[in-house]
Amino acid sequence: MSGPQDEKAEQSVGAFTLADPLSSTAPTPLPYPVPEPDEKWQLPNGFAHVFYGERNQGLMRPVIMADGFNLGRSDLQWLYAGLDRDYPLLSELRRRGRDVILLGFDERSASILDNAQAAMAAVQRTLAEQLGGAPLTVGGFSMGGIITRYALADLERQRMDHRTRLYFSYDSPHRGGVVPIGLQAFSHFIPLANDFARQMNSPAARQMLWRHYDPSNGGIGVAPERVAFLKKLEEIGSWPRIPRLIGLANGRGDGKGLDIKPGDTTLAVEKIYPGTTFYAQAQNGDVTVAELRRLLPPAQKTIKTNGFPELDAAPGGTLRSFGILADMLKKFGAEVDLRHEDVCFVPSVSAVSIRDIDQQKDLYADIDALDPGDSELDDFICSTANTAHTAVTEELCTWLLDRLPD
Question: N or C: which end of the chain has fewer CB within 10 A?
């Protein structure tokens, strides 16, 4: 028997979002001391916190770093903590006399084109306030790397001198990001409007995701918004041409993915959504990736894909996609069998823009054995291990620091 408590639990499960550690919800109080910014800027569709480099009395050698994808407004205090806690990236930048400009957005799930307006305004404000003529470094984490890529390319299209010598992307989904189709479908299976569903169907998600689940008709494919965005990107030159382009991947470069067998159960649920089960993505056609069941109101749905490669186990930056959902289910009384909490979110080949992710052979390509010239980037690095999406590691950060312009 089920009752009002079970119904409320089923309805409440969607009060979460899939987010990497940098853009997740900040705990209170922050577990890491964050300094007060020297300046705060209001920008179109966004805002920025400015931190001068050591011994600088103003903006001298600016580094603009954009926030990534989630639902809602950026939390730049939490972003600062995330970029300095595990490896002191921001402290090291400032010690070297670099000024850090953290760029946030009023709505992180808004269209990439809308948030690129904030990035362009941040570059122009930086140039207006800068003391001297040192070149800029501009980039971002996750979707922040896509936003700043678009912004710099659009400034060049408008023949505006952005004076940026180095562009960087940190685990950014240049060829698309991946959220398991079963999880996308589940967000809309919850019998109440919820944050998870809003995130999965947001403009940014529809532009970013390699394949999208359309809640209006259950269709699975490339979202029209992604097609339009890629066309718009191509119209402005696809990439900025003036700066050196570098990319960092949280995934491995040797083609070795996660220890997840295709078709494995990733998460099975009882008590709340009893019988709901998710499976790791397998190749070929008519592949079941989720069996969705709910009690109130009663419903069931089987989610299948056709022609997908083995995305969940691919080498790349990982996200606790099934782990985050399992945590929320347990919170509301479900019994869960969580077997694979982490799956690939940004494949390595996407982060370093060297292969598309449609085919198994490309998704699992041995990047280390490929001609680096195949990448659209001038230089890139892959992690020696598959690490969490946007994880701030010494390996990646020292590589980035060594490539900053003089």
Answer: N
